[in-house]
Amino acid sequence: MKIKIINHSLIQHKLTLLRDKKTNSKDFREYLDEISRLLAFEVLRNIKLKEIEIETPIKKTTGKILNEKINLFPILRAGQGMVEGFLGVVPNAKIGHIGLYRDEKTLEPKKYLFKFPSDAKKESLNIILDPMIATGGSAIEALKILKKEKIKNIKFVSIVTVEEAVLKINKKFPEVELITCSVDQKLNQKGYIIPGLGDAGDRIYGTK
Ligand code: PRP
Ligand code: URA
Fold this sequence. Notes:
This protein is of the alpha/beta class.
């Protein structure tokens, strides 16, 4: 299984609070936002830099600044809950939206929207955001949608996933870097992650 698990103590702490069924929507959104910000820090650790000349009040010198365009692709709805956290770290990132929902019976992903910034087709870093990878169906569909548009250099950032889904994605898209906070045990019969955190979209938006 090829996936980077971010084990930072602060993330594990907030993830536990996120999982707790007693956490209400307001707090859920806040924890998700804080985790996303911490994740962004790790995910962007090796982003490309370029050297420039500057002048401090004391002397001319050189320094490094970001040299890579970043596009964020939240998978709606739940991925939207991770956007502000990432923007807190890279405020100039552009946003594409991938609208997918899982059919409750078949668990197959259904696409209802795809809009992307034109920068995504140029040299850029493209980060898909979705807190949950369960069967992997939505993640694979999202990757297919981006690949069809010839969008490359993709990272997929989730909060909770399961091994079976990671293996599927690794097999179909070996070049995509996967990042998560936890690989949980398995899925239940309804396709929910055990122990997971429930339905992320519903918990963010207070639906159901
Ligand atoms: C959730 C989640 C993922 C998907 C994961 O979205 O945010 O997109 O399920 O499940 P999968 O790996 O089995 O495809 P959902 O379809 O519930 O839509 P929502 O965010 O609008 O609630
Ligand atoms: N989608 C969710 O939001 N949660 C799960 O456990 C599985 C799919």
